[in-house]
Amino acid sequence: MSNLSDLLPAGGGGLTAEFVASGALPNGTPIILNANGTVTAVAGSSVADSVTSPVNYASVEPSQMRSAYDTTNNKVIICYRQYVSGVGSSMVVVGTVSSGSITFGTPVTIGTSITNPYPTFATTSGKVFISYKSTSGVYGVVGTVSGTSISLGSAATIFSGGNNYHANVYDPVNDKIVVAWTNSSTNGQSAVGTISGTSISFGTAVVFSSTNCAYHAICYDSTNEKIVIASNVFSPSNAQEGKAVVGTVSGTSISFGSAVTYVSAPAEYNGISYDVAKDRVLISWSASSVLNAVVGSVSGTSISFGSVATFGYGTGADLINSVYNTALKQIVIGYKGTSSYPSTRTVEITGLSATMATPIVIQSSAGNVAIVYDPDSNTVNMATNTSTVGRSYLQTFAAILTNLTSTNFVGIPDKAYASGATATVNLQGGVSANQSNLALNTDYYIQFNGTLATSAGTPSVKAGISLSATSLHIDNGTIPAQTGNSGKNLTTNGTITSWAAAPTPPAAGMTLISTVTADNAATVDLLISDPSAYDNYILIGSAISSSGNGNGVVVQFKVGSAFQLSNYKFIRTRITSDTGTYLFTKDNVATFISVINNLGNATGRLGGFNMTIYSPNLAKTTVSTWESAAVNSSGDIGIDAGVGFLNLNSAVTGFRVYSVSSNISGTFSLYGLSKS
Questions:
Q1: 228-251 burial string, b = 16+ CB within 10 Å, else e?
Q2: How far apart are CA 503 and CA 491, in angstroms?
Q3: 3-class state of residue 196 by DSSP
Q4: Domain with CATH 2.40.300 in the chain
Q5: Phi, psi dihedral angles at 199 (to 5 degrees)
Q6: Mean pLDDT across the stretch 521-530?
Q7: Residue 499 main-chain phi, psi, to 5 deg
Q8: Could you tell me where the DSSP H helices lie in 447-580?
Q9: What angle do CA 302, 303, 307 make, to 5 degrees?
Q10: Max Cα-Cα span within the chain
Q11: Which residues, other chains included, contact 205 with Cβ-Cβ below 8 Å and sequence gap of 6+?
Q12: Helices vs strands, H then E, count in the chain
């Protein structure tokens, strides 16, 4: 839903269209297009920096804190280590954010004699996963949140043997947990886990560092669908440097590209996050009590880095945490700052450079740090500690919260409408005549809260230009300068317009567009990038065979982004060496055009066809004719000729060939008949 022209309801014209209102639409207020095709008034608010008073999540001093957020139950999950009467235990507690404050349930014991509990949330299963270590290895357990408590399944072994460091992350595309750790041979290893109910199983461990490594940090790059692991790596001479690897999950395994150095010096207490808006990875670490950061860009199975930036002092005595704040569209770093005070900093990424804001001190006494972002309350939860208790703070960062983006403005309704009503909307090129107090002949921009102003807001979205005090010509685009662009075409990438050289018309005659050689394929697709480049098209299939015996070969047309499954009609004359001639007719409920009626699958029983498609670039019924020949399941020769229609009144953008109920092999070529 990126182009308005693709989304207009039936009957929508170039100036107005009708949409169903989702929420009330005030008179004259700009509206946005929702993913389900409804419209909503532009609305938003601004929030200021704030930090709540602390709330205790542990009644004794905790350490080794790590946090996650359960988006299914809208809960904060804090794991930590504690000592009571000389007995060490790892704990997990559930927090609930409501009305600007947080409350906690009763802590649940993960286990005794285990350390470094590390939670993450798996969105598909709605489960919490916690990895932890002991002297005998690395383990994992699945947790189920219910109300203010969490129940834990049986522990699964990830690695058996001595180890030092571990970290985990969730891959939402593959619905897998990825764990990284240092094994007893001091190599870096990783394994992929699959959650089923309240248990988890792991695939075979894969080495990502063949030398000693520590301080692993791991994140998921949602744009490239990759795992990134940052580690402090020791060379054989015991020199230290920060290195990162890119991992690709496939099934229950993971493969890695080559390690890339991001700093040729020690990189301790690594933190890592992915900036969704900027498509960048940020690695932060401590070295000699100095906070450092570097920006990385993933490409394929590798990652490239900008220059290391230094951002003042921190104690470096605990792992650095970082999270992506979707409201700010920035990464927030949590760390132990000056005097070991728990602190946060926001990070603005530009290209491969990072700029950090002034530190915000959360607690004026020493404490370790774990942070997690709560998208439901737009707060960052910091779990820290004093010498006697565990404390939680909610931090809100100054931000503008709005449903307006740079691309979802659709128009302005002609009057006020109630939620659920069908609204008439003035679109691009139309005029909104229900405004007030506009300055004549002035550009107006939509503000985050839906009002109009003469200066750009955040994001910058132009509403149009005023025609009078009450009328606005709706136009959020601009035409670039025409000087020096004679003979060029105006084009757009969906966001901005620009001039481009006019394409050279194709030479008259028959031009090969694409060829596909299929080997036992379910379908064969041949696409048209520019339907207007040719008057007609010819689709040829040769040396066709089917994995099934007696199945037909059919063609479907693609319109827009989808192959059509209905509205076909065809008439075919068939001559066979055994049955003679007959007429075969289909009506408008056909799901394809049948070009070969019966194709045998014995050795040497092949078929071929030649289909001409006339003017598929026009938004009207698409007509095609074809001839085919094939050896059928009985070994007889069949010859077909016919005419087919797609009754959809839309331009065709591609063709799909397949064999009904079986796979297909052969060579398929698409030609364009150039305009003369």
A1: bbbbbbbeeeeebbbbbbbbbbee
A2: 12
A3: strand
A4: 4-46+402-460
A5: -130, 170
A6: 89
A7: -90, 140
A8: none
A9: 155
A10: 96
A11: 158, 159, 183, 189, 190, 191
A12: 0, 62
Fold adopted by 510-674 = Jelly Rolls (2.60.120)
Question: Which amino acid would we find at residue 383?
Answer: A
Residue 97: name the closest of 374, 304, 351, 493 by CA.
Answer: 374
* Side chain identity, residue 660: V
Residues in the chain: 676
CATH class of 49-397: mainly beta
**How far, in whole angstroms, is CA 153 from its chain's centroid?**
30
- Residue in the structure block whose two tokens are 């000729």: 641
Place of tokens 């591609």: 654
Fold of the domain built from segment(s) 4-46+402-460: Virus Head Decoration Protein; Chain: A, (2.40.300)
CA 33 vs CA 42, 119, 497, 548: distances in Å: 10, 37, 21, 47
Give ranges for CATH 2.60.120 in the chain: 510-674
User: What was the pLDDT predicted at 675?
Assistant: 63
Kindly list the distances between the CA atom of residue 22 and the CA atoms of 36, 40, 41, 44, 329, in Å, as whole numbers in the listed order. Answer: 10, 5, 8, 16, 26
pLDDT over 50 at 189, yes or no: yes
Extract the runs of DSSP E, i.e. beta strands, from 280-364. 280-287, 290-299, 302-305, 309-313, 321-325, 330-336, 342-350, 353-356, 360-361
**148 within 8 A of 104, measured Cβ to Cβ:** yes
Percentage, residues of the chain above pLDDT 70: 89
pLDDT tens digit sequence for 144-188: 999 999 999 999 999 998 776 899 999 999 999 999 999 878 889
Phi and psi dihedrals of 4, rounded to 5?
-60, -40
Q: How far apart, in Å, do the first and last CA atoms of the chain sit? A: 36
Is 14 within 8 Å of 400 (Cβ atoms)? no
d(CA 320, CA 262): 17
Half-sphere exposure of 322 (CA within 13 A, CB side): 30
State the DSSP code for 13. -
Q: How far is CA 208 from CA 180, 216, 301, 361, in A?
A: 9, 11, 13, 37
CB neighbour list of residue 229: distance below 8 Å, 6 or more residues apart: 167, 180, 188, 190, 208, 216, 217, 218, 244, 245, 247
Separation CA 363–CA 347 (nearest Å): 20
The 10s digit of each residue's pLDDT in 26-79 is: 999 999 999 899 999 999 988 888 999 999 999 999 999 999 999 999 999 999
Cα angle at 639 between 637 and 640, to 5 degrees?
Answer: 145
Q: Where in the chain is the domain with CATH 2.120.10.10?
A: 49-397
Count of CB atoms within 10 A of residue 168's CB?
25
